[in-house]
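Throughout our pipeline, every protein is held as a single compact record rather than as scattered files. Such a record has a labelled line for the sequence and another for the backbone structure tokens. The remainder of this section carries one protein's record, kept here as part of the documentation:
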Amino acid sequence: MKKIYSFFLILSIGLSACKKDSRAAWLKIDSVKLTTNAVTEGENSHGITDIWVYMDNEPLGVFEVPCEIPIITDEGNHHFIFYAGVNQNGINSTKIRYPFYDKVEANIVLTKEQTVNYTPNFTYKQGISFVGMENFEDTGIILQNDPNEDTTTIKILSALNYPNIVKYGNNCGHIHVSSTDTIAQVFTDIALSLPKTNIYMELDYMNNNTFAQGMITSQEILDPYLRINAQDNATIKWKKMYINIGEQTNYLAYNSSAFNYYFVVNLDSDNAIGDIYLDNIKILYFE
């Protein structure tokens, strides 16, 4: 009964307390990290917004980062497990425990009325295939325009010439539309063999114009699946998207197991020009 009683006290304090409770120890998480193998797993950019927290095999809850968690329990050493949470398809209401980030475990000493600072450092799980990767660091890229539809191409911007735009590595991709060239479509020029399983695309982007992502096979084009809204120019910044493309490939898979992904841009009606910046594209699934 002691563990159950403590768990409900944790929830009660966490939901209602306006000041620190003298019965509680506090766990403060200001940020989280992601460590990757840059060669095989790509850039360590992430969009982790929440963490699932367990202490001594008891769930403490899901917390938005940054957070300060009140915990009523015995003082001393406790075993914690953290899981990374993200917004699936960029939607705040579809928070998920991201299946490709490994859990973080730590032993943390708690003392009443004291705050312990901790920064979980996540990594990718073992046994993940990373395919369709594009970080725009090479002169040859896998995204090309459709010559039958438009003349707009995706260009590479360098950090040397555009230091205020490029955030990761030395380069990023750039799609530009205007009143004289209103539509752009870019496709991967290689087909990806993808299984019928849990598949996600990770994507870093910055955009002042709406764009969309979709999948195609040699037999069929799926209408743009995910619409990514334009950011306001006053607050525009790089963001991370986790796209559940398994929903797309499963729809198309009855015809093929080889897929290409694409992005399409149509100039917004209230824009004179539109700019889409892309980086660190990768598709993940378990082997």
